[in-house]
Amino acid sequence: MEALSAAWAKEWKKRLDASPAFAAAASGWSGSLVFVMRANGNGLERDRAVFLAIEDGRCRTARTARWNDLGECDLMLSASAETWRRVLQGSGDPVLAILSGQIRFERGRWSSLVPYAGAARELLRTAAAIDASFPPP
């Protein structure tokens, strides 16, 4: 399954829905996020993006992002395929990737995630558990 594809998003939602750790960490959090994998001459023909809608600790929606999602989401994080591969396969620290600019906040602010740092960690931990392929480096 390709990372940040429609099938991958569907699997991510299924796993988030089954995660008591995510439900507990995301309790009280409602918002929308888009995760973008940039096509940077890495074999991707175009950017890939996944939209998530979180509502009080539940993943209400996870799907391929639509054009209007990019302008309406609360947070949009983008990175190269290589950065997402490192973060989702556990060899890269997401906080360091954000601080170093490898993962960029295209919409929203880092500070808005601080109260939900545990939920963000569970989002990534759950995504990392999905066996996915990435474009070659």
What does this molecule look like?
By secondary structure, the protein is α+β, with helices and mostly antiparallel strands. It has a single domain (6-128), classed as Nonspecific Lipid-transfer Protein, Chain A, CATH 3.30.1050. Helices cover 36% and strands 25% of the residues. The protein has helices at 6-17, 20-25, 67-72, 81-88, 94-99, 117-128, and strands at 30-38, 48-55, 58-64, 75-80, 104-107. It has a five-stranded mixed β-sheet. Strand 2 and strand 3 form a beta hairpin. It is globular, with a radius of gyration of 14 Å. The two termini are 17 Å apart.
Number of strands: 5
Query: What class would the helix/strand composition place it in?
Result: alpha+beta
Overall geometric form: globular
Distance between termini? 17 Å
Cα-based radius of gyration, to the nearest Å: 14 Å
Strand order of the largest sheet: 3-2-1-4-5
| CATH architecture descriptor name | 2-Layer Sandwich
CATH topology: Nonspecific Lipid-transfer Protein, Chain A
Number of structurally distinct domains: 1
- Uncertain runs are none
Compressed to H and E, one letter per element, the order equals HHEEEHEHHEH
User: What is the CATH superfamily?
Assistant: SCP2 sterol-binding domain
State the helicity in percent bands: 25-40%
**Which percent band covers the strand fraction?**
15-25%
Mean pLDDT over the full residue set: 91
Tally the helices. 6
- For the record, the CATH class is Alpha Beta
Q: How would the blueprint of this fold be written?
A:
Blueprint: H1 6-17, H2 20-25, E1 30-38, E2 48-55, E3 58-64, H3 67-72, E4 75-80, H4 81-88, H5 94-99, E5 104-107, H6 117-128
Parallel strand pairs: 1-4
Antiparallel strand pairs: 1-2, 2-3, 4-5
